[in-house]
């Protein structure tokens, strides 16, 4: 289900919400592509952001809730010049991904184990990550220096 993206043109604030269902991954991608088109964020940066938010969303949906109820995961993106701040909020069990150690990377691709690399990938693609628990919600703030293509921006 595609939920609308909300844009505040003055401050480049975008927010959207997805249900806690992996079928929402397509909506995540659509929202990020729309954000990129509207702001002029480069396709390469949008691709990196999509990989990270896809990974985080998948982990939240797969491991973040102790019940089978539908939960809402909220995404807020704020663009200030070439600094993109993203906040991912959910009401799942407390989980600070920054407390996870770095995974042991295999020498050969065939030796790689499934799982455990998602948070590592997010750390590599983002310039800063901060976690806090706010009013029984996980609040993960990601910051990325991005490239803007003024010809792509619809502003």
The number of E-state strands comes to 6
The SS-based structural class is alpha+beta
Helicity, in percent? 25-40%
Low-confidence stretches: 1-10
Strand content is 25-35%
Q: What value does the average pLDDT take?
A: 86
Please describe the biggest sheet, giving its number of strands, its sense, and whether it closes into a barrel: 6 strands, antiparallel
Round the Cα radius of gyration to an integer and report it. Answer: 16 Å
- Fourth CATH level, the homologous superfamily: Histidine kinase-like ATPase, C-terminal domain
Shape: globular
Count of spatially separate domains = 1
Q: What's the end-to-end separation, in Å? A: 27 Å
| CATH top level class name | Alpha Beta
Instruction: Indicate the CATH topology.
Output: Heat Shock Protein 90
Name given to the CATH architecture: 2-Layer Sandwich
H and E string = EEHHEEHEE
Biggest sheet strand order reads 1-2-3-4-6-5
- Put simply, the count of helices is 3
Structural summary, described in words:
The protein is globular. A six-stranded antiparallel beta sheet has the order 1-2-3-4-6-5, with helices on one face. The chain has one domain: Heat Shock Protein 90 (2-Layer Sandwich). The protein starts with 5 loop residues before the first strand and ends in a 10-residue tail after the last strand. The protein is α+β, with helices and mostly antiparallel strands. The chain contains three helices and six strands.
């Amino acid at each position: 289900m595609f939920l609308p993206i909300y844009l505040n043109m003055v401050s480049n604030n975008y927010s959207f919400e997805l249900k806690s269902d992996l079928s929402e991954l397509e909506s995540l991608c659509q929202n990020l592509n729309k954000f990129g088109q509207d702001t002029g964020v480069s396709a390469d940066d949008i691709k990196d952001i999509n990989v990270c938010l896809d990974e985080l969303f998948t982990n939240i949906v797969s491991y973040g809730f102790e019940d089978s109820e539908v939960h809402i995961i909220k995404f807020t993106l704020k663009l200030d010049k070439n600094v993109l701040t993203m906040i991912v909020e959910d009401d799942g069990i407390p989980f600070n991904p920054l407390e996870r150690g770095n995974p042991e990377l295999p020498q050969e691709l065939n030796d790689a184990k499934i799982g455990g690399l998602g948070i590592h990938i997010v750390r590599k693609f983002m310039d800063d990550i901060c976690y806090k628990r706010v009013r029984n919600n996980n609040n993960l703030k990601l910051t990325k220096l991005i490239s803007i293509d003024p010809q792509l921006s619809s502003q």
